[in-house]
Design brief:
30 strands
């Protein structure tokens, strides 16, 4: 098992809002805007992103705004205001529309919608009593896979109105089920997993659109979702699911190579591994997983194939994030490291263009662009009021733990710090 890096964060980290000459206020915290999602267009020239902004209703919760920005930089355009509160964005194959999830205002469950960029018209794709948790289109854009949550029964709805909304553990569990329909959802979605009830957590299409690979558990509890997921495959036409390979412990995301011959996933090395932090390669002909990062001391967060022989891995190394290329033998080369802290990424497989949500000590999460070869560039500035504020010093420090493992943390200096004076450590 790998060394587990401890991150010591303060309220001032990424970005640090301990200000010189100005005290932090609730208003500053409440007004901070963060980029939570990014999606690069099919041409690689535009980036769609979700900006989380202050809400104005009684809940006090942040809302989402859908925006776009050119990959080369420039002014952002607002596509959907926060009244829509969109999430889970993706582009249509022709780059003329953006798909997103939005809660139905009447039934209060998430449904798939599409916004036309030419006129900003919003069209509902799915409807019904059940909410959509995840969705993805096949590579040719003709088929749509959906993870749909079991709907509440009429009795449950009646009980909720009477405030009898308590839950009994393991009773009447709601499963996330996998369905397939045509791209316009003009026909009722068909459940594709037969002979077994599974709680689906994540899925990807095979490049040819004939098979869906997914992670799932037998039960819906947090313990099962955290510890006992397995990787399956099933025909897009429907059928009995088959386990792809043996896994042990936590699982992260999965991805299929462009030629459909190999699967990569983030996984634990055993049941005691605290994170799904290693990259495994599975030839789909044999189903034998191989750990490509067994000697790597960092933690892998996400994997994406960039061609048939190279995996792109978002990793964490101490207090920094890094982007690595990994070949089929496990050789690793660095693309980015010790710069912005990457939270989310989107890849255009054809052009190699990339989009990121990333933060730095000077700014919250913003949109960054780059490529699979390098060139990380910040594109947006959604918190201009922070520009005139001088932030206090931060630095990465490290020390040896009781067991000899290296521990890293962020030290944020106090307001008005003067060398030689002792200060309390919080």
């Amino acid at each position: 098992m790998k060394n587990f890096f401890l991150f010591v964060f303060s309220i001032c980290l990424l970005p640090s809002y301990l200000l010189r000459g100005q005290s932090i206020t609730p208003e500053i915290i409440a007004d901070i805007r963060n980029v939570s999602e990014v999606a690069i267009s099919p041409s690689g020239s535009e980036i769609a992103y979700i900006l989380r902004v202050p809400g104005e209703d009684a809940s006090g919760m942040q809302k989402s705004v859908l925006m776009t920005v050119p990959k080369t930089g420039g002014s952002s355009k607002t596509i959907l205001e926060k009244v829509y509160n969109p999430s889970s964005i993706s582009w249509s194959n022709d780059g003329k529309n953006i798909y997103f999830l939005m809660k139905d205002t009447v039934k209060k469950v998430a449904q798939l919608n599409i916004v036309q960029l030419a006129n900003k018209d919003v069209i509902k794709i799915t409807s019904g009593e059940s909410g959509v948790a995840h969705y993805a289109f096949s590579a040719d854009g003709k088929s749509l896979a959906l993870v749909i949550i079991d709907a509440k029964s009429e009795q449950e709805k009646t009980d909720e109105k009477k405030k009898k909304d308590w839950e009994i553990k393991d009773d009447n569990q709601k499963f996330n089920r996998l369905y397939v329909t045509d791209a316009a959802a003009s026909t009722s979605p068909k459940e594709v997993i037969t002979d077994k009830v599974l709680n689906v957590t994540h899925f990807v299409w095979a490049p040819d659109g004939k098979t869906i690979y997914f992670t799932a558990t037998d039960k819906v509890s947090i313990d099962w979702t955290m510890m006992y997921q397995k990787i399956y495959k099933v025909s897009a036409e429907g059928g009995a699911p088959q386990i792809v390979c043996e896994t042990d412990g936590k699982l992260g995301n999965i991805d299929i190579s462009p030629d459909g011959k190999n699967l990569a996933f983030c996984g634990a090395v055993d049941i005691s591994d605290p994170l799904a932090q290693s990259v495994f390669l599975v030839p789909l002909e044999t189903g034998d997983p191989k750990n490509l990062t067994d000697k790597y001391e960092g933690s892998v967060v996400e994997v994406k194939w960039i061609n048939n022989t190279t995996i792109l891995a978002l990793t964490v190394e101490g207090c920094y994030s890094s982007l690595k290329k990994i070949d089929m033998k496990g050789k690793m080369t660095s693309v980015y490291g010790k710069s912005a802290i990457i939270r989310a990424m989107s890849l255009n497989l054809k052009t190699g263009a990339m989009a990121f949500s990333a933060s730095a000590p000077q700014n919250p999460n913003e949109v960054y662009s780059g490529t699979t070869s390098g060139g990380l560039k910040k594109l947006t500035d959604n918190n201009p009021d922070l520009k005139g504020i001088k932030l206090t010093k931060q630095e990465v420090i490290s020390w040896a733990g009781p067991d000899g493992w290296k521990i890293e943390g962020i030290l944020t200096y106090p307001n008005g710090y003067k060398e030689g004076i002792k200060y309390p450590l919080l």
